[in-house]
Amino acid sequence: MGDVSTDHKIVTHDAHISSIPNHEKPRKNRFAFGCAVLASMIYVLLGYDIGVMSGAAIFIQHDLRINDTQVEILTGIINLYSLIGAIVAGRLSDLIGRRYTIVLAAAIFFIGAVLMGLAPNYAVLMLGRFVAGVAIGFGVVTPVYIAEISPPASRGFLTSFPEVFINAGILLGYVSNFAFSKLPEHLSWRVMLGIGVIPSVLLGFGVLTMPESPRWLVMQGRLGEAKRVLVRVSDSKDEAELRVAEIKDVAGIPDHCNDEVVQVTKQSHGEGVWKDLFLRPTQSVRRVLIAAVGIHFFQQSSGIDTVVLYSPRILKKAGITGNSALLGASVAVGFVKTMSISVATFLLDRIGRRSLLLKSVGGMIVCLVLLATSLTVVDHHEEEKLMWAIGLSIAMILAFVASFSIGLGPIAGVYCAEIFPLRLRAQGVSVGGAVNRVTSGVVSMTFLSLTKAITVGGAFYLYAGVASVAWVFFYTFLPETQGRTLEEMDKLFAEFNWRSMCRRKHRDSGTSKGGPIELESL
Questions:
Q1: pLDDT for the residue numbered 270
Q2: Domain 26-491 annotated CATH 3.40.50.150
Q3: Residue 12 scores a pLDDT above 60
Q4: Residue 516 predicted with pLDDT over 50
Q5: If pLDDT is split at 50, 70 and 90, which confidence band does 463 have?
Q6: Which residues contact 119 (CB under 8 A, 6 or more apart)?
Q7: Taking CA atoms, which of 274, 323, 334, 364 is between 20 and 30 Å from 341?
Q8: Hey, which residues does 2 pair with through a beta bridge?
Q9: Which is higher by pLDDT, 256 or 129?
Q10: 353-380 and 425-477 are packed helices; what angle lies between their axes, rounded to 10 degrees?
């Protein structure tokens, strides 16, 4: 058994994954694809809960006779409960592995769904929301797992799957609302919430067929097992060998060490991570943390959950009447959102994260301003139906969810999962996930009160302002990560400077007028 230290000096390899000629790379790895699909199923649970609560809340309010404030709390509190799971998940996944953390999440959500489906009153329903929320918080491990098994060439595509499955879950929730809305009031919402036990069972058994993350295996000293997993999830044998070499470098394992099992230091098991994240971060880690927290904060504070959770109320404000019509229109919102995220999965590894993100947020700003304007016009002309304003409101709701889902939606998870150093990755992603859930909870729990204070139109003007700040933040702090290996991110963030990038682009643009130039990478 070899004995290695995480303080071992990192060896620089001349070979690099990007140096493998394209003609030597086979078709994308189907095994990695299957693992990403199975791991992402936990996000169906989150998406389903978000989607189903938009309609179930209508029936719950009538059946349990609760007020708007209680509806806000019931709808949004699961995001705050998930904070507990998100904080625990990082450390837990370092102890028991990424795979078993996801299995545990499925088991906990099963209990929560049963409690919600059988809830006789508001208190038990809230207990079910608490249990389900903790399980959903564990979902932050999924992007980490997918990023750690994915071949670099398709990492953006595969790591965007969680957002795809969130949207699929939201759509299923909307369809469930529509399908069960004809049941008796006391039964409809219980069936809507209780049926969530089905995907949790499928998730639990499905994840058991996946291999463990190779990077986690290396952290545990199980080098031989990690190599075998990398051979299965890489696009070629050469790529697998290079990935093994880079992970060994970062983990501090000597390049010549090929033992089946190696002895690792305690720091490889996650000790000291929180100090390295918050108390003594390097310049690169500090920048990574700012980027991760920022992208998750702005993803939720730009108002997407208000549209998803309260789409029936917003559509009613826009002029649509009748529960069936409102729930049917909500299905359309979910369908557009799902189709848009499906398109985004193919763009991430072609256009790049940064470019797609900036275009997405720019589109969101335009949509939010127009939506706020049209809703304000509708609000000021309640006695007469202005069809152009109603039509514009509906169109902007659909355009907004499309703009979000084609960029900011999937990129937040993809970006955060790939930028943290190996030893800090699980806890770093947990921090981002915690910020995401807290922000989502605050936004969703204050929307109805906010609309009463400044009107629905005013609320969306506010979200447009937040999105504008987000665009500036992303432009300033987020470098392009497309095509980089996970082990290269530390150097990328240490060297990134948006002013230098702008000057280089301006210089390159001027040079291109006089002849060919050699482009530099970020």
A1: 54
A2: no
A3: no
A4: no
A5: very high
A6: 125, 127, 128, 190, 193
A7: 323
A8: 262
A9: 129
A10: 70
Cβ atoms within 10 Å of 400's Cβ, excluding its own: 28
For residue 410, give Cα distances in angstroms to 141, 241, 247, 346: 15, 29, 26, 11
59 closest CA partner among 190, 171, 196: 190
Residue type, 117: G
54-63, 145-154, 314-323: range with lowest mean pLDDT: 314-323
In angstroms, the CA 230 to CA 130 distance is 37
Helix (H) or strand (E) holding 262: strand 262-263
| Secondary structure (H, E, C), 452-491 | HHHHHHHHHHHHHHHHHHHHHHHHHHCCCCCCCCHHHHHH
**Dist CA 100 CA 262 (whole Å):** 22
What is the SS3 string spanning 322-380? CHHHHHHHHHHHHHHHHHHHHHHHHHHHHHCHHHHHHHHHHHHHHHHHHHHHHHHHHHH
In whole angstroms, give the CA distance from residue 177 to residue 52.
6
- Torsion of the alpha carbons at 184, 190, 192 and 194, rounded to the nearest 10: -150
pLDDT at 499: 59
CB 429 within 8 A of CB 270: no
Q: How far apart are the first and last CA of the chain?
A: 41
The predicted pLDDT at position 319 comes to: 67
The whole-number pLDDT of residue 507 equals 55
Q: Which of 170, 180, 253, 182 is nearest to 214 (CA)?
A: 253
